[in-house]
Amino acid sequence: MGRKHTASIALLLPLLASTSNAASDPPRPRGVGPEFAKFYKNPDTFMCISNPNITVPIANVNDDYCDCPDGSDEPGTAACSYISPLSPPRPSSGKPGAVNETLALPGFYCKNKGHIPSYIPFTNVNDGVCDYELCCDGSDEYEGVGGVKCEDQCAKIGKEWRKQDEARQKSLNAARQRRKDLIAEAARLRKEVEDRIQTLKTQIQGQTLKVESLEKSLVEIERAERGKVVKGAGKGGKITVLSSLAKSRIEELTENVGRLRSERDSVKARVDELEAMLKRFKEEYNPNFNDEGVKRAVHAWEDYAAQDRSGPNEALDRDLDEILSPDSESAIKWEEFETTEESDVEVLYKFEEYLPTPVRDWVDSKLRDLRVALIENGILADPTSDSTTESKAVTDARSQLDSAKRELDNDKSELTRHQEDLDKDYGPDSIFRALKDICVEKDSGEYTYEHCFLSRTTQKPKKGGGHTGMGNFVHITSITVDEELPADGKGLGSGERIALKYENGQHCWNGPNRSTLVVLACAEKDEIWKIVEEEKCVYRMEVGTPAVCGVDVQKVVEGHDEL
Ligand code: MAN
């Protein structure tokens, strides 16, 4: 049925243009199409179409006997139907003298008024079967073989056909419109990539300059740092270290002086108490007892008391308080020595302090340069060679440079990615750019199959469980197909079709890595029509998409390898 239907379309098409002149032509013999009418105009003789050297009386036309080797004398009977058919129809005359043993006519012409005229194979003429698909007017069964009577159904069939055709045209127009939209979208996306490339190029230029300048500035800062004082681990320069040591030493001494003073004061209090006791003893003892020991003790006390023993000097004590007080005027201002950066040069060459600032700066910078030169020539040790002592200025400069380099690298790799993308094949009018990563699904058997355009194909078990990759996009190709076109038009039909190849999917146990060939045909919307596992883990999907409507596949695949 379907094959016949396809054949009928092929036979119908050449007729559409030629029927308009039919009204002015003289009546044609039965079964002759308008484009062959010119061969049957002579009222006396007929010249075989492909063998013009053979002529027969006009009465032999349609006499149910095959005279011409090309069967052209029997356009309205099945008498010459044994001759190989000619395909496609070729209404031209052959070379004189040559005997052509294929049919000169495409078949028996059915006028099909109310529908579309068409040719029916000569074998079907008067075979006792109504072939309404090709001959809706029933004119092929004019002899009523076996009592068959094929009434004209062209009005009904034509009406139905026009209705379907209208729907087909509508759908085709919608598909064409969708295709236009996709092309516009693809162009927009391409432009976006081109614009991004421009932006990135400009950005990269700027960033390259920035990196160069940050590199220079890092070198300068590192160099300048060499001219600075050696630092302890985070504690500042030599003077700072020294002052910090002095400060803690003085604090220690102050503390000890304080402690000694309080010890002294407590010893003095005890001495005072003892002296008071001895004084009372001398005043209160009884000299009449004549105790020699007591007398000796009293004399010793009198000798002791007679000596001039002055206590702590209060004025000196006050001075000491003043010296030890951190708030006193004369206290050392340690903060002044706790600066984080300091030049040895300043310390070593105090005379600078007497110089005017510009001169001092100049001297300072010259001395730094000298120091750097000495370090670079190995005469002085490099204070910055120990990475743990790297200054904040160097660390900051290095981190700025690193982040600028990172940004530059990111932009460069994005640029490469976009440039490669522009060179990629996205099909006719780059249309698949607009469909890239758009996915469609269809249930089939125990799986739901997914096709994501120019990305991948996937098999998902309906009962749950892991998804199986059926391949990743590799390239656009083409394939010749020859299939029945279903009535709803959702199929590949026959001819060249664009196909998308997906490879290197999940490995198949005891087999290859899964792969899928997605064959595309024109449809109003993107949809999977059919999935077949042609061999173990080798799949084929038939997919409808407006992207391929009206596309000349041959042009598309030029420069590509065909399957
Ligand atoms: C799974 C599916 C099938 C495939 C087998 C091979 O069941 O991917 O399509 O044929 O594995 O083992």
TrEMBL record:
| Compositionally biased region (Polar residues) | 384-402
Instruction: Respond yes or no to whether keyword DNA repair is given for this record.
Output: no
Question: Could you identify this protein by its name?
Answer: Glucosidase 2 subunit beta
Biological process (GO) annotations held by this record are: N-glycan processing
**Superkingdom of the source species:** Eukaryota
Q: Name one GO cellular component term.
A: glucosidase II complex
Q: Name one Pfam family in it.
A: PRKCSH-like
> Looking at the record, which segments are called Disordered?
381-422
Q: Which organism is it from?
A: Setomelanomma holmii
* Residue ranges annotated for the MRH domain, each copy included: 437-551
Q: In which residue ranges is the amino acid composition biased (Basic and acidic residues)?
A: 403-422
Q: Which UniProt keywords apply?
A: Coiled coil, Disulfide bond, Endoplasmic reticulum, Signal
Q: Which residues form the signal peptide?
A: 1-22
Residues annotated as coiled-coil are 172-284
Which InterPro entries does the entry mention?
Answer: Gtb1-like, LDL_receptor-like_sf, Man6P_isomerase_rcpt-bd_dom_sf, MRH_dom, PRKCSH, PRKCSH_N
